[in-house]
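Q: I have four molecules that I believe assemble together. Could you output structure tokens for the complex as a whole instead of separate predictions?
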Amino acid sequence: MLRRTYDGQLCSVARTLEVVGERWTLLIVRDALMGITRFDGFLNSLPIARNVLSDRLNGLVDHGVMERVQYQDRPPRHEYLLTGKGRELMSVIVVLMEWGDRHLPLPPGPPAMAGHTGCEGTVRAELVCDSCDEPVPATTVALRVNAAATPNPQP
Amino acid sequence: MLRRTYDGQLCSVARTLEVVGERWTLLIVRDALMGITRFDGFLNSLPIARNVLSDRLNGLVDHGVMERVQYQDRPPRHEYLLTGKGRELMSVIVVLMEWGDRHLPLPPGPPAMAGHTGCEGTVRAELVCDSCDEPVPATTVALRVNAAATPNPQP
DNA sequence: AAGGGCAGGTTGCGTGAAACAACCCGTGGT
DNA sequence: ACCACGGGTTGTTTCACGCAACCTGCCCTT
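A: Yes, here they are, computed for all four components at once.
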């Protein structure tokens, strides 16, 4: 998705998108979170070109979202596993999924859900105010610039 | 970010990314959530080309994420306002921001935060299990295919 | 020993979307 | 008459994507 980079953008959103904002990247992460680990696995799951998949996996490894692990010797074969950093993208996948389910529904219903391992519950994302300490609707949330952290760009 | 579309992908994540997954789109939404409404406002905030901004705003209007509202007559001028559907993308922005703050930190600290309007609290995103009814770490969440909703592809 | 299959890529080529710059249009100010 | 402002549209170039072909190591069959 990114031609060059989002440089000049101090925002954490922009910096996150530099890692996962390219075309296919978040779908690769989604598949990894569903348990796919191998090159051909991603290739079968997504209508993506091999060279682009190779690019994206290398990028994710470079950014520490995935790691490349050898799983056999002869011939050497590796799989791509999410790191902790990568598994924490679960929140991103869940909110994207929820927004799609709510605003772009499919007739047969949601094709996938997030489940809590161990118990059979489903997992949802919530915005929580740490002062009220309870869930708040998205419409009562505002983005505020943190003045202390962006003093002034040097001339 | 998307060259063609993610067609063939039933997933809600893919369908959401068709709406907001292109380069710049989520940054435009972020700026809109921060209060920017006009063409030149976005242009000043982002290093984006005018034609690309025009494309993205039209796409967001087509998808019902924003609406184009006239705010003066002579000469006719309009502003771009988020719809309810658009404001619900706040969750997406918040989780992207949190992931960036945690895993790609900047020396001066987080450049922005999400705040609860009315009270002075800051807002965070949480994954909540509706069975346990309490927050769960991302690492204990798994994506499950909803078999009932994806019966079988026709042969 | 020759061939086929599988896993995991790399290479080369063509196209179309993004970046950039220039231009346009209607109005209001001087 | 001229310039500035807000809000775009129109070229032109460049680069990332999509596609197909090819390569490498190893194993299995004939």
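A: One point stands out. Residues 150-155 of chain A have pLDDT under 50 and may be disordered.
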